[in-house]
Design brief:
The protein has 1374 residues and is of the alpha/beta class. The protein contains 51 helices and 23 strands.
Length: 1374
């Protein structure tokens, strides 16, 4: 085995930050100020009595009341909840279940957790047995209270009955909380297991195999769909008790009522049918709600992820309107759910009174009688009958929703995977023969195209499925959303004009991106891959990585090359047994064209999980030209890189990505044009010192447009339409027509190319004073780093009076809530009186009212109570959605108008999106119902106490003790629960960030063989989420049991007084009181838990409110009459201008003074980090001035509205940005340009063939980020979009970096024609793009070094510009 594959030996002993830094915001226990509350998890080591009463949770309640909790305080987590173990448990059964089964996941879950489900059902069985005993006990107690005869039993018997009832009630509540806790753990286990296998699936898919699932949809699988498992874990064991309860209730009632029960059975049957249809309708509406939410989140994600380009183009308001329109549609559907819920609430409150009225009405109407004790016992049984009648239809609805969600996840889990056996690393035969890459007669595809006419309409139920079924073009990118394809390869093949090819032959290659690949690369060779835009260069690299689907010639012939979506799975199945198609003689590392950067430090990005070898590390930094950058960055190599490398320039990101591959010390380096974004001198240094120097002896495959270096490589591969057209040495192929054309282009432009350095003195110092050996001795390891991302765990959220004021009182909301509280009290009063009148008509000795009058009054009161409760819950929902609608609009506007440098650079997008998904969803679907039920429940609790006081006034003496106990419990519980709930919210942000990074970087992760490391990181993140959820459920049960003691104390005290004064007590009030007290425990607990849950939801509301306090850009619009035709000339003046990105950073542009004349074409040159791109940001006021000002046509831009300014400036940034939608939308997002003009400009930009390759033309599908296009195609579209704006000022920031020279010449000609009357500022690394400029601006470390005509600067031998040109000339001569 080759020595350089040492990386494989290091694989097991990974560098700690890779595993820990992703959860840095969570692993607070690593910090000195965060000491765990427990040395070991108390649940695993507590005594039985402590587990029964949850006493082991008390230390957390005490600590949380006084302290700001962090996840580290809750460590260590339960061993049985370890994500790795849970993944293995469910994976074993998932593999056993036939995956073609519709409910395979459900079966796997039941097989995995059958014991837990069984234990939960056993607990529910014992609980239902206790519930069955309650009517008998109630009968005995009321009979005793009613018996006032001389031979009645003594008070001791009554005490015994009350004591038995209290003990039974306590045991029932203890069992209930143990069951709830066990079901919560069961849900957490199942959720973690499903999340982990879903995450692992991501690492086994590429865009060749995953054709249906976008990043947002995969995230929804974990954030939304997997959460439905909790509902099933809660409901399924409970539903198991319903048959027992149903059988007992019916048997008991038949015993007393006989045939009179048939009327109640008919009512029950009708109500079950009604509830079933309500559940089905609710499920369908909920499905639409989810689709609307997905659409809104897709648009919101698009806005947040592309905020910089949206701001630069002045499109903020357009995208705001797009999101707000989607939100309005979502709210309309949500309101429908409120009405369905209203019907459900009314049905729920009318169910019991209807059963009572019908049953007793028929019974007494037939002339039968029963005792008061028997009547109240039957009332209790009828109350128990409510649960099965109400729950069975609801369970069906929940099961339907669960099934839909699980099938969505299952569809992803069974989607095709890449075949890892296609690529064989360290092939011994290749090693022995000195071959590092060997591929023979192979074809590769990105998965073919979808056949529109075969769409299944059933698959279009949701927005996601519609989206997945409408992707009509072949994906030409990897899972990272970057170029990974031949791009037009065979689509353009279909446009071939060769007359000897008939229509059938023209379609043979459809869907094949790499065809007839025969490639043998020997050890140590340096290979360059060149070709035009869409020729298949990146697809060749992807094929060598195993990201594409191998397809044999026989399969191509069988399907006649028509690889449509319906046969793609069959093709992959045929190739599952294929192996060793790509044989490699060693290990590989990979560099993407658009660098994949993690939200970690520079050091972590370079080490990428390997052990620190300081000498090798310093050498990688030096060779990748990062030394100067580390000196500039405030934390050196410990500087935290923002999400997607947002605080690095394009060149810096490329070199960090390259340094990662160099440090890996692999045998084979596959590099997809990593040097296109680099300055000429940096590019030359890396090419000579690294590619041709340090890496000599390793096999290097480089995709590049830098054809000036072709004579320095061993062999050249020329790609055309997915085939290797030429392969050979420079001398062998230089006489071909294609190479001659390239050489002529190169010869024409080479004289104009120059290499850019900091200044002449630095250039000399680099060449003479500093020796390579001395440079490499320098250490680039910093001792102290800097972070730009704020720790979300440090955010202290206290739900104070301001939050309550904002939610309940502000904007005149208090008027509605006073009305709702009044109405709720009226409903509660009606319920109490209904109970009394019900007691009256079942009392055979009641003669004050006629029986039917009592029936009518009872039924009327029930209707009043039901209507009142329905109005309260629905009204509060409508009031809340009105509030959240406005809140969402305000949040979105504040977010969109926040400064990039002060907010977006410092805040991960996952954290921002969490506000719009998790937090907004809580406000939409939870907080309104909690408020409504809290008002209703507390109203009933208050009137229950009133009833008790009417019967035994002495009960009022207990109220102070009850209130004190409740206040103490709530102080401990609510504060601790709020803290744990906050941790639950923030713990999901790192999980979402890791998911996004993994989806975008799956190819890089696989190429470095780091799948296991990322899986472990995911386990750590899931463990934190699960542990926080464990403690949240523990706190719930701890509080519930203590509330039970409070309610039992009140019941016991009241019962004692009733026993003492039983001779004077009204037996009807006694029966009503006991019936109400059975509900009292539940209502008190339910209302207190809802109150704590409300606090948790108000944390989400407060987090949303804090979005309204983020820093804002200055005024967006200002009415200024002089702006009607501004700018008319395009003159730009910088006056004493200085800029810094943030108040705590250094000045990056220093005292700039220069003037650009109208219509001038200015070239801006300078080393990476010199400030070239910053000038563009300054002109568009993405970053505001620190000092000085910029004038355009004499107007200080700082006096303008920001949107007014940006609309009048065209910018083409470094990174091409496309949006999901049509090609037309991407060319003209605001829809103001006619199709004729779009097509005319497309022809001039060499995009006609691209448009014609799809029958839809301008309406062809562009995936999110342009994932189905090559980087060159994306950049062409972005350039054309800029040209179509026709502004007077144009900024081009390295716009042609990813385009071959031939296409670049076409674009340069088009720019010259269309921008002839515009002032153009061009930043470029290829000097041929700026050498013909009117003047050149030379920057170094944020300062202007030279600004003059390029020819004059070349004539001045002392100019910095001359030194660059002279350096290039020497390089050419060599």
């Amino acid at each position: 085995m080759r020595k350089s594959s040492k990386r494989e030996d290091e694989k097991e002993d990974t560098y700690t930050p890779l595993l820990d830094d992703t959860t840095d915001n969570l692993q607070s226990s690593d910090k000195p100020d965060c000491v765990p509350i427990f040395k070991q998890n108390p649940f695993e080591n507590s005594w039985l009595i402590s587990k029964i009463f949850f006493s082991w949770v008390t230390p957390l309640a005490r600590f949380g009341r006084k302290n700001h909790l962090k996840p580290g305080h809750l460590e260590p987590s339960l061993k049985m909840m370890d994500a790795a173990k849970l993944h293995d448990d469910i994976l074993v059964n998932w593999d056993k279940v036939p995956h073609d089964h519709k409910n395979a996941i459900f079966k796997a879950l039941m097989m995995t957790y059958k014991k837990e489900f069984f234990y939960a059902m056993i607990i529910n069985f014992f609980q239902v047995c206790i519930d069955i005993s309650v009517p008998f006990m109630l009968h005995a107690i009321i009979k005793f209270m009613q018996d006032k005869s001389e031979d009645a039993r003594g008070i001791g018997y009554g005490i015994f009955l009350i004591a038995c009832y209290l003990i039974v009630d306590l045991v029932a509540k203890l069992l209930s909380q143990q069951g709830n806790f066990l079901q919560g753990l069961l849900g957490a286990k199942a959720y973690t297991g499903v999340c982990s296998i879903t995450y692992n699936k991501i690492l086994r898919c590429s865009s060749a195999t995953n054709k249906s699932f976008a990043q947002a949809e995969i995230i929804n699988f974990i954030q939304v769909d997997a959460g439905k498992i909790f509902f099933l874990a809660w409901v399924l064991p409970v539903v198991a008790r319903l048959p027992i309860q149903l059988i007992f209730s019916i048997s008991y009632l038949i015993y007393f009522f006989g045939l009179s029960l048939l009327g109640a059975a008919g009512v029950a049957f009708v109500l079950v049918i009604i509830n079933f249809f309500i559940a089905v309708i609710g499920q369908k509406i909920q499905k639409v709600v989810l689709a609307r939410k997905d659409e809104r989140m897709r648009f919101t994600t698009e806005l947040i992820n592309n905020i910089k380009i949206i701001k630069l183009n002045g499109w903020v308001q357009y995208f705001l309107d797009k999101v707000n329109t989607s939100r309005a549609k979502e709210i309309k559907v949500i309101i429908w759910t409120f009405f369905v819920f209203a019907v459900n609430v009314f049905s729920m409150f009318m169910l019991s009174p209807l059963l009572i009225v019908v049953t007793f009405g028929i019974f007494f109407g037939a002339g039968h009688t029963m005792t008061l004790a028997q009547g109240f016992a039957c009332l209790q049984v009828l109350g128990q009958l409510n649960m099965p009648i109400r729950w069975i239809p609801q369970f069906i609805g929940i099961l339907l929703q669960f099934t839909v969600s699980m099938r969505r996840i299952q569809k992803f889990l069974i989607c095709d995977e890449i075949n890892p056996a296609i690529v064989r690393q360290n092939d011994q035969e290749c090693v022995n023969k000195g071959i590092d890459i060997l591929v023979e007669n192979s074809n590769f595809t990105w998965g073919g195209q979808k056949e529109e006419k075969k769409k299944d309409p059933k698959k279009e139920d949701t927005k996601e499925e519609t989206k997945s079924s409408s992707n009509t073009s072949s994906p030409r990118n990897d899972i990272n959303g970057e170029k990974n394809s031949s791009e037009e390869d065979l689509d353009s093949e279909s446009t071939m004009s060769d007359s000897d090819k008939d229509e059938k032959a023209a379609k043979v290659d459809e869907g094949i991106q790499i065809r007839d690949l025969n490639l043998k690369i020997h050890r140590g060779e340096f290979i360059c891959v060149i070709g035009g835009v869409g020729s298949g260069k990146s697809s060749l690299i992807s094929a060598l990585l195993g990201d594409m689907i191998y397809i044999s010639d026989q399969t191509i012939r069988e399907f006649q090359g028509k690889l449509f979506e319906d046969v793609r799975h069959e093709i992959i199945e045929r190739t599952k047994n294929e192996k060793d198609i790509v044989r490699l003689g060693g290990s590989i590392s990979y560099v993407q064209q658009q660098p994949w950067i993690q939200n970690k430090t520079i050091r972590d990005n370079i080490l990428f999980g390997l052990e620190m070898d300081e000498e090798r590390y310093n050498q990688a930094i030096e060779l990748c030209e990062l030394a100067n950058d580390l000196e500039i960055l405030p934390g050196g190599d410990l500087t935290e890189i923002g999400e997607k490398g947002i605080n690095l320039s394009g060149g810096q990101k490329a070199r960090v990505s390259l340094a990662r591959a160099v440090y890996a010390n692999a045998d084979i380096l596959l590099m997809d044009d990593p040097i296109s974004a680099l300055d000429s001198n940096v590019k030359k240094s890396i090419f000579e010192n690294l590619f041709c120097g340090e890496l000599r002896g390793k096999t290097r495959v480089l995709v590049t447009h830098a054809v000036e270096f072709l004579d320095q490589v061993d062999r050249i591969i020329v790609m055309e339409k997915g085939r290797i057209k030429y392969i050979g040495t420079y001398d062998e192929i230089q006489h071909s027509d294609e190479i001659q054309h390239i050489l002529k282009t190169l010869e024409k432009t080479a004289r104009k190319n120059s290499e850019l350095e900091e200044d002449k003195e630095e250039n000399k110092e680099d060449k003479e004073d500093v020796k390579p050996d001395e440079k490499l001795k320098k250490s680039f390891m910093s001792e102290k780093g800097t972070n730009i991302t704020e720790d979300e765990n440090e955010e202290k959220i206290v739900v104070g009076w301001k939050v309550y004021y904002s939610f309940f009182i502000k904007n005149n909301s208090w008027i509605f809530y006073i009305f709702f509280i009044t109405l709720s009290f009226a409903g509660a009063l009606a319920i109490v009186f209904n109970g009394i009148f019900t007691g009256r008509f079942i009392n055979p000795y009641e003669e004050k009212y006629s029986f039917w009058s009592l029936i009518f009054i009872s039924l009327s009161l029930a209707i009043v109570a039901s209507i009142a409760t329905t109005i309260v819950t629905t009204g509060i929902s409508l009031a809340t959605i009105k509030l959240t609608r406005k809140l969402h609009i305000d949040m979105l506007e504040k977010t969109a108008n926040a400064p990039v440098n002060l907010y977006f650079d410092k805040t991960p997008s996952g954290r921002i999106l969490n506000r719009y998904s998790s937090d907004i969803n809580k406000l939409d679907n939870g907080i309104d119902k909690k408020v409504g039920w809290i008002i209703s429940c507390f109203s009933m609790v208050i009137f229950d106490i009133v009833v008790a006081a009417l019967n035994t006034p002495f009960v009022l003496a207990t109220l102070p003790f009850i209130i004190i106990a409740m206040v103490i419990l709530l102080r401990y519980y609510i504060k601790s629960f709020r803290e744990v709930n906050r941790l639950g919210s923030v713990s999901h942000s790192p999980m979402m960030n890791l998911l996004g990074e993994t989806i975008n970087g799956a190819t890089t992760i696989r190429s470095f063989q780091k799948q296991n490391d990322f899986v472990k990181t995911n386990y750590k993140v899931l463990n934190v989420v699960t542990n926080v959820g464990f403690w949240r459920e523990s706190l719930r049960s701890w509080f519930a049991i203590r509330i039970e003691f409070v309610s039992l104390f009140l019941l016991g005290f009241t019962s004692g007084f009733m026993l003492y004064y039983r001779s004077k007590a009204d037996p009807i009030l006694i029966g009503v009181l006991f019936n109400r007290f059975i509900m009292f425990n539940m209502m008190l607990l339910f209302s207190c838990q809802l109150l704590s849950d409300l606090e948790g939801d108000l944390v989400s509301y407060d987090r949303c409110l804090k979005m309204l306090e983020i820093p804002q850009e200055r005024e967006q619009r200002k009415y200024m009459p002089e702006l009607m035709d501004w700018p008319s000339q395009g003159q730009i003046e910088f006056e004493d201008y200085s800029l810094k990105y943030r108040p705590d950073t250094e000045v990056v542009l220093k005292n700039l003074n220069f003037t650009i004349k109208p219509k001038e074409k200015i070239g801006i040159v300078g080393r990476t980090g010199a400030g070239k791109s910053t000038i563009c940001l300054a002109l568009c006021r993405i970053v505001e001035a620190f000092e000085g000002k910029i004038k355009i046509d004499g107007i200080d831009v700082s006096t303008l509205g920001i949107a007014d300014l940006r609309e009048r400036i065209t910018i083409i940034p470094q990174d091409p940005t496309l949006f999901e939608g049509t090609l037309r939308f991407n060319l003209d997002p605001v829809g103001t340009i006619p199709d004729v003009e779009l097509l005319r400009m497309a022809r001039k930009a060499n995009l006609e063939e691209f448009i014609n390759r799809d029958d839809k033309g301008l309406d062809q599908k562009i995936e999110d980020g342009g994932k189905n296009l090559s980087s060159g195609e994306k950049q062409l579209i972005c350039i054309l979009r800029a040209i179509l704006r026709k502004n007077k000022i144009v900024l081009m920031d390295e716009a042609t970096a990813n385009i071959d020279i031939k296409t670049e010449q076409i674009i340069q000609k088009l720019i010259h024609e269309e921008f002839e009357d515009s002032t153009v500022l061009t930043i470029a690394h290829r000097l041929n793009t700026i050498i013909n400029s009117d003047r050149v601006l030379v920057l170094s470390r944020g300062e202007v070094q030279e600004f003059d005509d390029p020819q004059k600067l070349l004539e001045d031998q002392d100019s910095m510009f001359y030194s660059y040109a002279n350096e290039l000339k020497k390089h050419e001569e060599e």
